[in-house]
Amino acid sequence: MRIGLIRHFKVTRGYPNTRVSSEELLKWMEEYDASEVEESEIDLKNIDWKRCFSSDMPRAATTAKKAFGGDITYLKELREINLVPIFPPNRRLPLKLHLLSIRMAWLFNHKSQPVSKLDLQKQLSGTLDDILSGNEDTLIVSHGGVMMFLRKELMRRGFRGPEFKIANNGQLYVFEKRGR
User: Fold this and answer.
1) Contact, 22 vs 98, CB < 8 A?
2) How far apart are CA 143 and CA 95, in angstroms?
3) What is the pLDDT, as a whole number, of residue 16?
4) pTM, entire model
5) What does the alpha-carbon distance between residue 64 and residue 67 come to, in Å, rounded to a whole number?
């Protein structure tokens, strides 16, 4: 059984290169979520993928349609982690500092974040239970942060596959489990 993880195509909405307030960050995040993508070819490694599950976000859905010709199951459980700025609304900081501080708050289960790390792990574990029950070669199209957790969970379940910190957009990562 093989599981193919694909991070959505690169979005066309660029990153702000100025300092932004928390309000501006939220607006940028909305624009990012609604952004078009730069489609590219996906090397599917000559594998006859039987099923495909995708985040229901537009950028992932577009990627899934390009990768898979059959019916696609869209799941909100495969969406990117919803993170919330931790600084006052008018505090202007570089985007990278905002994102780093939000990720740190999330990693340390800060009360400002709506979903805890444990909640996400439980959600993705349950979602993988459902996906793996089909016991067929399956594509999963998702987002960078979620893919890190999916990879870790697949490895915990005995799959072997490539290592990545942040997955490349539109690239297939194949994980394989042999026998039982």
Assistant:
1) yes
2) 19
3) 86
4) 0.93
5) 5
User: Are 65 and 72 within 8 A, CB to CB?
Assistant: yes
Q: Are 55 and 8 in contact (CB under 8 A)?
A: yes
Please calculate the CA angle 89-77-116 and round it to the nearest 5 degrees: 50
Amino acid (1-letter code) at residue 36:
E
Per DSSP bridges, beta strands 37-38 and 10-11 are antiparallel
Q: Which amino acid makes up residue 167?
A: A
Give CA 32 to chain center in angstroms: 14
Q: Do the beta carbons of residue 75 and residue 53 sit within 8 Å?
A: yes
Question: Residues of the chain with pLDDT > 70: what percent?
Answer: 99
pLDDT digits (tens, 9 = 90+) for 4-25: 999 999 999 988 888 999 999 9
Distance separating alpha carbons of residues 145 and 158, to the nearest angstrom: 21
Q: Give yes or no for residue 180 having a pLDDT over 60.
A: no
Category of 45 on φ-ψ map: left (φ > 0), alpha (ψ -120 to 50) or beta: left
